[in-house]
Amino acid sequence: MSISRQNLSVVIVSYISEEVIHNCIESIPKDINILVVDNSGNKEFKLSIEEKYINAKCILSLENLGMGAGNNLGLKHSSTDYALILNPDVVLENDTIDELISSSKEMESFAVIAPIIKSDIQMNYKLFDENKNNENFINPFKVKSVDGFAMLLNVKKINQMDDFKNFKFFDENIFLYLENDDFCKRLVDANENIYVVPKSKVNHLGGKAVSQKFSEEVELSRNWHWIWSKFYFQRKHKGYLVALLNGLPTFLSAILRFLLYLIIFNSKKRSIYLHRAMGYLNAAMGRKSFFRPNIKI
After folding, report:
1. In a domain, 250, yes or no
2. What is the pLDDT of residue 13?
3. To 10 degrees, what angle do helices 215-238 and 179-189 make?
4. What is the 3-state composition of the chain as percent helix, strand, coil, each rounded to the nearest 5?
């Protein structure tokens, strides 16, 4: 079965994303169903989304699940064979989805296809051969992984695979960062195909999904989770010792910078590097990805 607007839905995981999510939703064709999973549990936000957009429904999670578990929840509640996962700070071009649908018809088999970011300095994919990164691709091409802010999943196909059954697509141990890399690696290890479609483009603000008035708390969370997730990912796929050694320079650097900013009374920088170091320590000790930003709505 090929992709059509009738068997495609869009899943968006939000968390205090009111500043950007409306631009995202308004860029999606009105005849495609949208499912928003809101991790803040904001009932007023749910009502505003469902009242404003006839093609959108909003699920309130019972807790802040993070990106991976939030996407799993959205996919579980979608009823289509295909789903386009988007971050709230992504805006589609007029033909983004049509180009994905058109290109998919030329593919013999795929688990994931993704648009390309409309940027001259960023890429939202990793090639198997990193030396080819500077080539100008025109037709769809296979990649090792794609960033999680925009990826179209062959839901029916993936959900039939042993490692992904019951919509456990993303590793829910990961709260933030690298859940997409882990997902893609498991697909590639299972000999599934991931494609990027250069003619399909999206705009990504990057780091703007959460309201900017909470930027300091979000920055602490990012530093904690980036280091934790890197350790967890490497331990899962390469072993504990590799994760420990690869993360050690970052940990030592964070400790030194923490001490420096402690001495010069820069509390903001001091807190950032403390959280970075604590992310590594908690991952090394085998603790869960428990840290959450201290945000009260």
Report:
1. yes
2. 96
3. 30
4. 45, 20, 40
